[in-house]
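Hi C.,

You asked whether I'd gotten around to modeling the 1041-residue construct. I have! Everything is below, sequence then structure, no commentary in between.
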Amino acid sequence: MFSFSCFSRRLFPPRFRTLRKSVSGANLLAFCALSVWFLVAGAQAAEPAADRNYMGLGIAHADNNNSPFYADTMLSAREPGIVSDFSIPTTTDADGWPTTDSAIYICDGAVVKNGHGTYGLRFKGQADISCWFVDAVINKNYDPVANSTTAQLVVSNPSPNLVLILRNTRRTSSSALNTGVTNIRLMRPTTPGSNTPYPFGTLFTDNARAMASKFSAIRAMDLRATNSNNDQNWSDRTRPANATYARKPKDANGNSLYGWQGMGVPWEHVIAFANATNCDLWINVPAKANDDYILKLAQMTRWGSDGANPYTATQTSPVWAPLNSGLKLYIEYSNELWNTAPGFRQYHDNMALARNEPANSPIRYDGNTGDAALAWRRVAYRTVVISNIFRSVWGDSQMMTRIRPVFEWQYGDGQNTGSTGLRFVDDYYNNQAGNFVSTPRPVNYFFWGGGAAAYYEPANMNSTTLTVDQILFESRVSNRPAQWNDKLVDIGWTSVYGLKRSAYEGGLALGDDPSQSLAAKKATLADSRLKDVVIANQNTWSNYGGDLLMYFESSDSVGYGHTDQNFSLSTPKLQGIDALSAATRAPMTLGQAIPATVPGGAFAPNFSATGVLDSSFGPSSVNYVLRAASAGTYTVKINYNAWTTANSVRFLANGVWGSSVALPTTGGIGNTTAASVTTTVPLVAGKNGVRLALARGDARIVSLEWTLGTASPTPTPTPTPSPTPTPTPTNNAAQNGSFETPNIGTANYSYNTSGATWTFSGNSGIQNNGSPWNAPSAPDGVQTAFLQGLNGNNGTISQSWNWSAGTYTVSFRAAQRYHNNATNNQGIRVLLNDTLLTTITPSGTSFSTYTTPSFSAGAGAQTLKFVGNSTGGDHSAFIDSVVVAPVTTTLNLSNLSFETPNLGLGNYSYNTTGATWTFSGNSGIQNRAGIWTTVAPPDGHQVAFLQGLNGSNGTISQNFSVSSATNKTVSFKAMQRGSNSQTIRVLLNNTLVATITPSGGSYSTYTTGSFAVSAGTHTLKFQGASSSGDHTAFIDQVTMN
């Protein structure tokens, strides 16, 4: 018996795993009938709407482990060997099929745990069949007309070292003995232990497809064996007709030219899997691939392949189909080209290729000869080349919309791998350092997105003393935010160049050496609390301005996988993914909201820092992330000090450079403003990346005052009468809710109508009954508003007025436009200020009434907005009868004794969900007779706990509303855990109401003093306050009087 093992991957891969080998037959034409696979219930579609989480998954290498990718085990078996020793290769034909009797190692029982059941065998030719770890070979039959042998293999051992042995072979009926066979197929059982194998011709397992379909995108880095991949010419690649997809060609000295994963699966199969799962596709171009290879790969993604070469035009019946229309394509140059660890040969390949770049190469534009600088520039350079080649195939209109090249680097801009490449592209291809190209282009002309990995992990993942609670606590980014400081650096670099923030890998990392604290790590992966960690960290990614996060990886025993076998698709990690897929994306909270004054020191990575920016002792350029309330040209006042006489700065905003601004000398450097200058910067609504670059001299930037100067240009409105302006409302009702002012005349319409109380921008305005808009008759009066979306450019309707604090709903009438012989499909987003209240898509061309969920508003000026939501084409909806109504019902606190959800006798839960209360940090619910305490709850069976662990305390909170101002007190029962000493802080919103320290280990009643509660929605909080050690208090029977 022979044992084979190999390296895993990520930063440093000392871990060993079973050797992955794969075998294919001739063209799997039968797959064409299976290429349209039904989507599993609840599956994610490709790129979701902007307010949803965009999550992808790295698919593990296609080996015969616990998570089989291929239904045919021969596609991932070892190359044929001689009968007496399968580890010694036998002779094969050009496609890799044995030309002699042979033994083929199918799978390693040390890894496989679900290998039992009945297998279906078929091959061209004749042979005597025997096997290791097979109970019986049954139903053997030879068809002389088709020259085809079929049989079934019965396997009862769940972990078989399965070896297929073929003796007395005849390739054809007239061939001599010992001439081999071809087109071997060995279809695995449909489920572990099943007597039914997959039908011949099935390509992917149901479980592999079901797992991928939980996500919106897949990354094929491991499928294609990207690490140490040696593909240079198109002829080097794996083809569907090859007998093995893990071939390892050797050089003259017997050294493998590829890595432990071999050559990877065919590109045709990668595209087919994306199509079968309706997932956007992320591919990795081999590090040594030449331009012709890249061109043919681009052609295959657009037009498909005949199994050897791509088509160059649309085919009616392609042998292998192109990427389905509507799916996005992400293209990355290789993988982790900065990684020097064993198994990442591409680092050395790129370094050598950079050194060999000619003197006139773009990466040598400034005479820099440093190895690192040239290597990092070359990664960006090849990504530009890849982008240009894909543009030549797909056309300009598809670039950055459907075709999305990405530039990825080491997290936190480690070794300057990101900034070096971005600056090079901007300097050279955008002519920022000279006149190098005839048509300068910004960085975001070539790259859609960029960034680095987004892992979270315990503080010391390779510790030998980790506990489950420690792993769960330390892996939650909110508990250890410093572990994501590098993400703040990366968002700064991507945003200033106008790129989306994409993470090529991410998720929970439990170490490259999972043998350390193995029991705790396995228990963590099975712990239900892990679901909430996944949810919380994805939300933090969104809070940090992240876009597409590709989780690593689909399956692994401990270190990174979302399951250890794709027969189990309900692990806590995957439960978290399912919940996130159904949830609204968390809002971005990173950076400075503007209009506002931004401190000079509030740049990446500490976006909230105060203080000044001093170029004399620090960087000559810094990156800010701003959240703009609306799009437009902003005026920025630069408050500064300058010692030298010649000083100037420039702004780079979202990839666009502004003009140089002089900073006259102030005669000294201080921390207070000595002088100010102003300039203008165009910004978009929402996330903006802005670099302040010192062009020359020295300066100390005290602050930047941002104000909205000029709103974004909008189409010229149709002239309308000049009515008397409507006064600004001062009560809680929207004015001109039926859009009857101004009267624009029978059958007329007006874009960006003025004098209407409402503000119209973009593609919006008012239309009168009988206008060319073909609107249904206005339900109130003779006019309605319209929201048009034209190729994704949507209109906005807004009105601002002074509100009283309280709870409200917004109701309105709406209908779709009937246009071009079809009902439009325009959605309407309703926002208060910039907070989304709801999204409504009118159901037809007749007006219906729609109402938002109730929401809270503070006292003072508020802005109600209606924004179109269409993404393409020409779609419009009509709005009328807008009413803002107060909600007078008092919303009382609920679940006061923490009886929901029922955790079951003796159980407990951190950060319990479904409880009305919100638990964060070290808090949750425990059931009676649990490990926390044996003291019976004073009411029911469950109590809440507030734990303080080395000063990190839990919080319990619940929102409630009152319709009018009042005074309240809060009462509750509490006790300490054993001899602990935990203090409980009671807060209304974030204002301290009382501090209470329970007196001992039995429940007593505690009541706060009276406090004022204004009308509106508030948050009641209980918060632990211990400063050290491990201290816990229990709470029950909360009342508010």
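If it helps when you're writing up: Residues 1-44, 711-732 have pLDDT under 50 and may be disordered.

Thanks,
B.
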